[in-house]
Structure formats: structure tokens, C-alpha cells
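This part of the workshop introduces the protein records we will be handling. The question running through the whole workshop is how a given chain folds. To make this concrete, we reproduce a full record directly below:
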Amino acid sequence: MRPVTLDRVTEVLSDAGRQFYPDEDTKTVVILLPQGTTYLTIHDCVLRMHTVWRGILHTEALSSAIPLVLQWNRERPGPKVVVHQGTPVRITTETNCHLACGLDDFQLQAQILLGLILASRFFVALEDLIPPEPAWNDGPPHEDFLERQDFKHSFPMSSDNTGVHPVDSSRVISACKRLGLQIERSQTLLTLSSQPFPTTIRLFGEDTWLSVSSHWDANISRSLRPELFDVANAINRESLFPVVSLLLSHENASARADFIVSVGEGMTDCQLDTQISLGLQCVRDATRTLTKAGSLN
């Protein structure tokens, strides 16, 4: 399995007929979308696709956008949506891919094109709700939203990394056994025991997506819910993985940390084991951060 480099990224973009602009000084590949600008970088063994929306939001309009951000992070496989509060408010999306086991050309092209499609879908939905106000000369430059994010490097598992095969429930169960995880199966849902928070693994979307998820019931008053959103948004902004989402009802509030990866192109055993292991670490850390967040305890 070949390592992923920016040269390979430009090769697959060229093969797909996509226009791009390499920036050798910042080691970034720039792609212009109708709704914004996407920046592709490789850092700490992660391919990061970060899209900055072309529009801006004034503070009074943020309340209209937050329900869409909450819904998207909770119900869609991607991208992760982040709100950058300030004057004005900016919105960005991220699709990140862990590269410790490498990717073949087919997997790499699919990951990049899927990331671009997902970003466009979110911003189309956002602009249907809030027409974009141009941001060409308003607010900080895009570089301010591309800071390095926290990531604990995950080394690839020692399992086989030569054959790419379709991912189904039997392969996920086998991966859990190789990792020494204790699981209980209920149809397509695998529940893990001996975890600090309720944690599940599942395939969805006709076995094209794999998710590792951790859940926390936030027993907090309605007055503290804006603080809960700020904490969740900060985790999403400062960490490459996972995406933290909220479900806010009249009676209760709950949070979920999801590590979601596309598996529709197949995976080697090493890729599958590494993604599950990384996902468990990330959702555990994010959920722990939520529960320890100051007045939200």
C-alpha cells in the first residue's frame, strides 16, 4: 500500500479532471468550489480537506445557522461543520482521512472527491437558508482558519496490508477480535463493553460508511445549553477527529462523538483495524472532554 503524498494528491486530481492550485510555500493544494475554497494538506499522517465558506455571518444571523450546523453534524456522514465566532462569524467544514496504512489510487481519489462533494452539499444547504454575503474584504484571511490541530499519532496495526476487500459486518467483527475488543451484536450494531462511555460500532449506508460512536446524556439545565454548544464546537475546531454532535430537546440534551470513515472502496485488514482503534481513542477522548467541561459537569 503506497504512502500518500501531495504529489499523489495532485496526480489523482488531474486524473479526475479537477482544477487545482498547488502552493509549494505552504505545502497546500487549493481547490476553488462554487461555495468556497478547499485547502488540502497532509500533516501528522492525516489528509486534511478544509473548506472555508465564501460568505460571512453577522452575529444576529448566527441563530439561524446553528440548527443546520447541529443537524448536519448529527445526521450526516460529513463533513464536520465548525463555527468560528467573531466579527464577522465564519463557517468552515472539514473532511479528514488517516493515512498510517497508506491508500491505493482508487481509495485516494474516492476520498478526495467525496470530501469535495460533501462540502458542497453542506454549503448549498446553508445558502438555501442564508444567502451568502461576500467576504472578500471582510474579516481575517483564510489562513487564520487553517491552524494545526491536536492529533495523537496512531501507528498502523500489524495486520495484513496487502489485499483490499469489501468491508462487511463479518470483517468488522473479525477486526474487533484482532483488537481484543469485547462486543455484543444486535443486528448491524456492535456494542462494546468495558468502555468508559456507551460505545458502538456500525456499518451504514449500504455498508459504505463505518462509524465508531460514543454517547453521553447531558443532564444540564436549558440555560447551560449555549455553553454545551461552545464546548462541542471547540472540540470540533481544535481536533482533527471526531465530530461532536448535540441533540437538544425540551426535556434533555445529549451529545455524541462520531468517528466516521468511508469504506465503500474496500479496506485492507491493517486499514480497518487502524481506523477502528483510532476511532475508539478519539471518541473516548472527546466524550471525556465534554463531561469534564467546567460547569457542565
About this structure: The radius of gyration is 19 Å.
